[in-house]
Amino acid sequence: MVSVPFSSLFLQVSARLSACIVALLVVIWALYFKTSFIPRSSSQEDLIYAILHPLLMVIGFILVSGEAILVHRWLPGSRNLKKSVHLCLQGLALGSGVFGIWTKFHSQEGIVANFYSLHSWMGLICITLFGAQWLLGFLNFWHKGEVRTTRVRVLSWHVFLGLYTYALAVVTAETGLLEKLTFLQTRGDVLRRCTESMVVNGLGLGLALLSGIVILAAVSPKHEAPHFKMMYTNNKWLSSQ
């Protein structure tokens, strides 16, 4: 029976705790400080969309996709079961990301008005890469016509692009937090030293910590290497576990 390494268990627990802290902070920011999301149009519908954007992109996109990455590390069962859960969670994250971007472009200001910053450009690039990655993963790992050698060749690229896209999503969220907080502070709506600033800064630190833990857990070995000890018997060195 193979036991779960302590380091792997520690990373999984740390990832869940970090995810809970991030979710709590983004909910507090979006709901308790919702006056910071009031749009120029003063439309109640646009306000709802503005509040939904950080919730969908952080919880629905980043947290769910991070959990999908960790599925292969903690979920017991067959490989097909793990791939099914991984595919469903990534599909849920993709849907949340698409709807989250749509909430910004659905306002009365139009698409062009919201497509001017580095954050918006990176967001579109990230969601496009994520969608292509999900589609290619589905075709290569679920399509029965693909031979095993093709899947083996694609697997390393699939893992790399998946982790790269996840990291890009976190960086995009960080640029969005910085852009929003800088705008609020420049306009005088939020002080540099206040509760909301602390919440947003804490959210940014939480995302940075979470992404590091998830990526480390993804690239770490699944099981500890067996320990061997050498014994000298009958003029020969023998190894035993």
From TrEMBL:
Pfam families: Cytochrom_B561. It comes from Coffea arabica. Residues 14-219 form the Cytochrome b561 domain. Keywords: Electron transport, Heme, Iron, Membrane, Metal-binding, Transmembrane, Transmembrane helix, Transport. The chain crosses the membrane at residues 9-32, 47-72, 84-102, 122-142, 154-178, 198-219. Its main location: membrane. Its cofactor is heme b. It is a multi-pass membrane protein. It is found in: Membrane. This is Probable transmembrane ascorbate ferrireductase 4 isoform X2.
